[in-house]
């Protein structure tokens, strides 16, 4: 339906102060080469350099690129190809896995029925990945159970892709720990047995791309996002009061910290406002892996990040509580964590 629109329905038109009406100059994002850090004989200097670059990025805008990450080009290509196959299916097939109200998994087209204004110009498929030896095939099983056994090949690709994403996330967590002056193991152990979300974003071409947004301005409420863009520009980050674009680089993953990691860092690192714009010429797709801790793990900063000058910025919470807040009570935007804290402490949301 989105493809055929010449006139844009009002609910897809964003307010003037949020329209993507100006060009977004490219942002020069720190590029972190993980080759040496990941090698068995990684040198302390390689680790130090990688954690220094991450510290620089996370102190500025929370976005960085990783290359030589060890994930095969073939697997990434398969993941994009499977996404194309899913979105080429007729709406009736995709709606077999329609996202249910209040749930984070399933298929959604523009979130009609969930939101009434500022609808995103996109279709999404989200599913759960569990880094848990007791449930080793959650992704593969989801595809077979929800879509049918003929989707086993897709399920296998995304099961492997998510396992690689989880493993890469834990290595990045080692670097984030070092960059914050806590032990290399602290955050890695916190995210073991992670219960994460994989999302396939599909953005159809739009006849009036200066009126709409593929994904509206937001900070990811999650802990770490590992994103792979296809060859079409669209990701923009709000830095120094200006929207800046991050150009696609097929060999790189775009990594950003989210609200939950901002809380874990006691606000030393900030999750960053970003959005996705669309265009009139071509569709755009992105693979987004959202690292989330085990649901009942208490999110609070390590004691090394607390002292009399830097008291606690956010209350203890679990990811399960924050996820439910975003799915049932609040549309994630640039103030989610503060709104969630107010909600937890029962202050009226501003
Ligand atoms: C936990 C999540 C909620 C969203 C998907 C993941 C991480 C990003 C969130 C989101 C993309 C932020 C913008 C608004 C949102 C509604 C969307 O456009 O999809 C958010 C996702 C969601 O609530 O489904
Ligand atoms: O598609 C993109 O480039 C960004 C999408 C995004 O920010 C998200 O899904 O949280
Ligand atoms: Fe995002």
UniProtKB/TrEMBL annotation:
Domain Fe2OG dioxygenase residue range list: 193-293
Cofactor: L-ascorbate
Entry superkingdom: Eukaryota
InterPro entries membership: DIOX_N (IPR026992), IPNS-like_FE2OG_OXY (IPR044861), IPNS-like_sf (IPR027443), Iron_ascorbate_oxido_reductase (IPR050231), Oxoglu/Fe-dep_dioxygenase_dom (IPR005123)
Molecular functions per Gene Ontology: gibberellin 20-oxidase activity; metal ion binding
PROSITE patterns in alphabetical order: FE2OG_OXY
Pfam families in alphabetical order: 2OG-FeII_Oxy, DIOX_N
Catalyzed reaction equations: gibberellin A12 + 2 2-oxoglutarate + 3 O2 + H(+) = gibberellin A9 + 2 succinate + 3 CO2 + 2 H2O
Keyword list, A-Z: Iron, Metal-binding, Oxidoreductase
This protein's pathway: Hormone biosynthesis; Plant hormone biosynthesis; gibberellin biosynthesis
GO BP: any one term: flower development
PANTHER family xrefs: 2-OXOGLUTARATE (2OG) AND FE(II)-DEPENDENT OXYGENASE SUPERFAMILY PROTEIN-RELATED (PTHR47990)
Protein name: BnaA03g47400D protein
Gene that this polypeptide is encoded by: BnaA03g47400D
């Amino acid at each position: 339906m989105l493809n055929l629109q010449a006139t844009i329905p009002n609910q897809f038109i964003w307010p003037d102060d949020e329209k993507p009406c100006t060009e977004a100059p490219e942002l020069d994002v720190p590029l972190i080469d993980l080759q040496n850090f990941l090698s068995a004989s990684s040198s302390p200097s390689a680790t130090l350099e990688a954690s220094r670059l991450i510290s620089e990025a996370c102190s500025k805008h929370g976005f960085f690129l990783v290359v030589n990450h060890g994930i095969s080009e073939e697997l990434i290509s398969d993941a994009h190809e499977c996404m194309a196959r899913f979105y080429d299916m007729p709406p009736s097939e995709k709606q077999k896995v329609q996202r249910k109200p209040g749930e984070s998994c399933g298929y959604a087209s523009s979130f009609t029925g969930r939101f009434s204004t500022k609808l995103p110009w996109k279709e999404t498929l989200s599913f759960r990945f569990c880094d848990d030896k007791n449930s080793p095939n959650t992704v593969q099983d989801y595809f077979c159970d929800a879509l049918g056994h003929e989707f086993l090949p897709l399920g296998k690709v995304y099961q492997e892709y998510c396992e690689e994403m989880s493993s890469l996330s834990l290595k990045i967590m080692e670097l984030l720990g070092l960059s914050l002056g806590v032990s290399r193991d602290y955050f890695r152990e916190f995210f073991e047995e992670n219960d994460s979300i994989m999302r396939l974003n599909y953005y159809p071409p739009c006849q009036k791309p200066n009126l709409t947004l593929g994904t509206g301005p937001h900070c990811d409420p999650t802990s770490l996002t590992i994103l792979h863009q296809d060859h079409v520009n669209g990701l923009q980050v709000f830095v120094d009061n200006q929207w800046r674009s991050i150009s696609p680089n097929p060999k790189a993953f775009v990594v950003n910290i989210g609200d939950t990691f901002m809380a874990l860092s006691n606000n030393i690192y900030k999750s960053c406002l970003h959005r996705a714009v669309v265009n009139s010429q071509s569709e755009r797709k992105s693979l987004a892996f959202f690292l989330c801790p085990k649901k009942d793990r208490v999110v609070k900063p390590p004691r090394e990040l607390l002292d009399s000058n830097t008291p606690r910025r956010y209350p203890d919470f679990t990811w399960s509580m924050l996820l439910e807040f975003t799915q049932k009570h609040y549309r994630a935007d640039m103030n989610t964590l503060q709104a969630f804290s107010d909600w937890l402490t029962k202050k009226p949301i501003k």
